[in-house]
Amino acid sequence: MTPAPPKAATRTYGVYRPVLPVTSPRNPDRMVYTGDADGRCEIFAWDRSSGVERQLTDRPHGTLLCAVDDDEAVWWFDEDRGGSGGWRTQDFHGGPDRPAMAGVPYGRPAGLALAAGGTVAVGIRSPEGLSVHMGRRGGTGTSVLRTTDSGTLCDLAPDGGLLAVSGPAHSARAVTLLTPDGTTVAVLSGTRERTWALGFAPTPTPLPGPTPSCGPAPTPGRTLLLVMRERAGRYHLGTWAPGRGLELLPWCSFDTETTARWYPGPGGTRVLLRQDRHGRSRLFTADLDRRELTPVPTPEGSILDASPAADGDVHFIWTDAVNVPRALSLSGAPLPGQSQWRLPRFGHRQDLWTPGPDGPVHTFVTTPVGRPAPHPLILLVHGGPADHDRDAYDPMVQALVGSGHAVARVNYRGSTGYGPRWRSAYSEGVGHTQVADLVRARAELLDRGIGREGAVGLCGTSWGGYLTLLAMGTRPDLWNVGVAVKPLADCVTAFRHSTPALQALDTALFGGTPDEVPDAYAHASPSSYAAAIRSPLLVVAARRDAKCPPEQIEAYLAVLRAGGVAHELMWLDSGHDGYDGADHLAVIQRSLKFLGRGLPSAPVPAEPSPHPERR
What we know:
9 helices; 36% strand; globular
């Protein structure tokens, strides 16, 4: 009899997405995953063959990151509320947890790679920059790399002889290959063509066979790194090998953002690819030996993550507008997170394409069923900006639509899923380009009779919160209420108090630092326009937020107060990405109440239950 899977991963009124389980290299029936423990993210171990589930971690503010090595030791990151900490390990079957590796400094996680035979590489990010350490579980780590450059440990070759470190995809050091003694073997630049490292083949692998332009025949048994490179408006899969360099595969390219993973197993050259395209997803397998690309049949909607399993199966997280995200497998085998909550499903969804200077702007629109239009309208603004809204279940959408609001989710310029040209389109300036797209979508929604003039609001988190503040300050006549959760609010102050990785992103986005291009930062900063806001505004901020630090929130609030702008404020004692469902639920409830009060004739949304009924 097939055992029932454990309860759905991290579900508290749909606040969290489930996370794919990590399968033991020894036994595909043994998995570790991030699951729900009374509203917190915690780490669980599950043996599918016996049906035994065990909660590994129990920390007051939750635990998110986990892995499992060849010896079936479970790794998990023990972080504080500010996001810093270190890796710990414990046996899959139980027992005490211990520090994973001595000699590794306290900091933020920046990659973990587990090679065959027990060699481990750990990436840690601190105020001084990135450090990478190598060693064995329970031993002492040796420093391999220390750099002030922004970067993340991508992977460790299966023989432990080569590391790949990823920098910003657009930088001169997009990918750095180095040996355990710290010697740099190769550097792949992304300054002309953005480049991403995706991981080493699980075993020393024959290179793909030559094409007419690929040069000499492959040499068996060489280390192979999977790479994605943006070229001529497309995303090309490629491989890098020592002595041969980077070879792109002309038969395997895509018009929108795509990522890839190797299939596990000895000698294999198969790859699973996941493409995000126009708010939906597709899966493919690529056989590098045969140079064949094959679609993988999956339901229409969004695939939030996908991973090939050691037994040849494919595990993936799937959702659409009316189905809560859940973990599935192509074979139908049970996975942690398959069970679902019974959550509300309201509304009719349609796709809207609005003409714009760089192409049509795609919006997902959800409207109440059985209520006459026009409706009070809320633009729910996604973060990123390198992200996008999807054909995916969103509890905020369902709660708002269920209480009579129309909801629009706009994939403005800068969003992923629409190709390189769309992602890099900032013709009207940072922030202002995206606000212009929100304004265009708003106008069409009102022209079509979906939304109602005088009853239009904005709500966004992180970069979405930034756009909410910027739109309300630059076009105060268009918006009747706004909610900004953990937003970027003052660009210069945020840069001064941010992490090196985010400073590098800002420098690329603005064309320099605040000292080098002060006018660009001032032009894009919501604090420059805060005094012009005339509609109700709720700001939600986090005291331990490293991405949108509290100092820049305080700078923005000072401008609001000086300008006499009425507003409400909610502080959280958490980081940017909290793992406690109670915080998320409190933010949802406060936001729904505030939006409901701010839009004329709109009923106040019902509060979601913190304990939805399971089915």
